[in-house]
């Protein structure tokens, strides 16, 4: 698994104009290829009267799935530059659809490549990006007496407490960078006089 990847901060649309042609770039997060295809279909439906709805998406923290379509523009002038812009910006789990409303002026191959790639780049700038880092999930079980202090200390040091369950003891689910596991285990033993139980779980991505 990749240690981290970048994705868009939020879904949205950004509009640019090149020689009277309108280019609307819609960006959305996509956890799977199916989600990406559903988003493309929704944008196509919304802009059924557009000249072109070109698209590209990158799925997987290691960019294992990459697809693009020119949707009737000359081959390699739309989908590919859009995909290249996503990859150049290290974007993952993201889908981009650029809708073009033709304004009467032909742009030529070079102009199209710049317009489609540029529309994606400008949309990424407008909507913002964030880094998601790989974490190990872990469970801490501690008695009620110490639970409040442990929770406060975790939050004070920027640890992500994902879930808290109260039973005979208090169970906290947290996320840790791999490199911090040993140091955290030592800190926990010290903070709870060795009374807390610590169990490592699987892996997940969270905001860095």
Description:
The structure is a single chain. The chain has helices at 33-46, 79-88, 108-127, 144-156, 181-191, and strands spanning 4-8, 12-18, 21-29, 52-59, 65-69, 94-101, 129-142, 160-166, 170-176, 197-207. By secondary structure, it is of the alpha+beta class. Strands 1, 7, 8, 9 and 10 form a five-stranded antiparallel sheet that branches. A five-stranded antiparallel sheet has the order 2-3-6-4-5, with helices on both faces. Helix 2 packs across helix 3 (108-127).
Report low-confidence residues grouped into runs of 5 or more. Answer: none
Could you tell me the number of beta strands? 10
Based on Cα principal axes, name the global outline: elongated
* Beta-strand share of residues: 35-45%
SSE-based structural type: alpha+beta
Mean pLDDT: 90
**Cα distance, first to last residue?**
16 Å
Number of helices: 5
Largest sheet: 5 strands, antiparallel
Portion of residues in helices?
A: 25-40%
Run of helices and strands: EEEHEEHEHEHEEHE
Radius of gyration: 23 Å
